[in-house]
Design brief:
Number of strands: 11
Distance between the termini: 38 Å
Helix content: under 10%
Radius of gyration: 15 Å
Shape: elongated
Largest sheet: 7 strands, mixed
Strand content: over 45%
Number of helices: 0
Length: 123
Amino acid sequence: VQLQASGGGLVQAGGSLGLSCAASGTILGVKAMGWYRQAPGKQREMVATTTSDGSTTYADSVKGRFTISRDNAKKTVNLQMSSLKPGDTAVYYCNADLTYYTSSGSFARRDYWGQGTLVTVSS
């Protein structure tokens, strides 16, 4: 079981960028999914989350600029970022609450993190 993030890169202030994250493996179910970020010298913070029924939560700093979406069938979560600011520069991590089959034939549930993808916004 793993989360694979993609997207990110360098963009000028005011530009847009999209991030994607896919869960793969012997997954039984996916509950909350989300994106977090960690800027240099700062703690990791929540950017946006979405529940399995589509409810969303955003950090105040990104409201109106970022949009989180998910595809339950594909087990993916996306983050569309617009009007980017230099302050959005960070490593972005996807997160998912996954229930999965174990090698012993039972199932377990835990939080998974993607590998992180760097977003750099130049002024």
